[in-house]
Amino acid sequence: MPTQFDAFISHGKKDSKAFAIKLYQRLTEQGFNVWLDQNDIPSGVDFQNEIDAGIEKSHSSVESDYCRKELDLAIQLNKRIIPILHVMVSKECWDHLPPAIKKLNFNQLCFHDKIDFEDAFPGLVEVLRRDADYIKQHTRILTAALLWDSNYKQTRYLLIGEERKQAVAWLEKRFVDEQPPNTPTDLQCEFICESTRNANNLMTQVFISYTLDDKTFMVKLSQTLMRHHITVWMAQADYDSQTQVAFQEETKDSIEGADNFIYLISPASVQSKICEQQLAYAFSLNKRIIALQLAALDFAPLSKIAQSWQLIDFRQHAEHYHDCADKLLHELHEDAQAKALKWQRQNYNYYVVTT
After folding, report:
1. Non-local CB neighbours of 293 within 8 Å, separated by 6+ positions
2. For 235-262, how does the pLDDT look when each residue is reduced to its tens digit (9 = 90+)?
3. DSSP line for 276-326
4. d(CA 235, CA 238)
């Protein structure tokens, strides 16, 4: 595991260099491992690459308003961003800040010339220690997910054993009465779900059938499901006739190993022979079919199968996506709980009979 940092200090070299060094020294005295470019970039290496690596491995970013590239990367990686007001900024400078930064509380940590450093410093220490375990886990999982992604998502880079269980617990943690310090990235969600799928012999909770016309919606939906630790298999919709047979066999295995078959029903999917085959095969296996209606259409050609599926109307998904997604998540969680209860009863009955 590469070295991780409690904070990455991003600062304006002209106005805040001396302040950043002092901040680095005081945080180090408090036991924090801090990344600061004055201390942590070896000579003769690519400056921007080293900064990017420092942000990836840091739990928090302590920001000024001069470091847009660093700030953009921290936002992209869903890092906890702690704004420190060291130099009062103009309205023009404020207007150029990303919306994700403007919404932060800049009055929480003021270190400008009218505030004594030692009076303000304990507030920063308190923020850095708040939810520290959750944020450290965010960094560990992010580092592992980036390694997996950079190695073409090979299975050998997935999480296993206790490390995977801890990652699952982290992903499923909910902050009920407070805002989370930061949120999982889509890559982290996919990485954890793929680790779970691998641990379950490639079986999944959901198989999604879709066409290329609906791929944008499919990607959004799969990200929503994986954020709730629901494992997903997305059928490849763009294979050609030469590879169709091989993919049909792979698709059959995936449908067989999925608890739920989600059919994105649209004008394109109703006309798709591939979706028709997938749907018919799921129906023949008595799989639970959940149809997500994306547009107004005629259900007559699907009347037999339509009688057995659960239908959720996503036609207004642009405006009401989250409400519709919540209905789907509720259905999937209810099904998972029912299966778990059934397994417990079967396991208990087996134990009674065999003993």
Report:
1. 265, 266, 311, 312, 313, 314, 315
2. 766 555 445 555 578 899 999 999 999 9
3. HHHHHHHHHTT-EEEEEE-S----GGGHHHHTTSEEEE-TTHHHHHHHHHH
4. 9
Span between the terminal Cα atoms of the chain, in Å: 46
Contacting residues for 302 by C-beta, under 8 A, at least 6 apart:
265, 270, 279
253-307 pLDDT, tens per residue?
999 999 999 999 999 999 888 898 999 999 999 999 999 999 988 777 777 888 8
Q: State the pTM of this model.
A: 0.88
Which tokens sit at 36? Answer: 């600061």
CB-CB contact of 145 with 101 (8 Å) = no
Tell me the two tokens of residue 252: 């059959």
Structure tokens belonging to residue 309: 């599926």
Q: pLDDT value at position 39? A: 65
Mean per-residue pLDDT of the chain:
85
| Gap between the Cα atoms of 5 and 277, Å rounded | 51
What's residue 350's pLDDT?
47
> Cα torsion at 249, 255, 256, 260 (round to 10°)?
180
The tokens describing 213, both together, are 């016309």
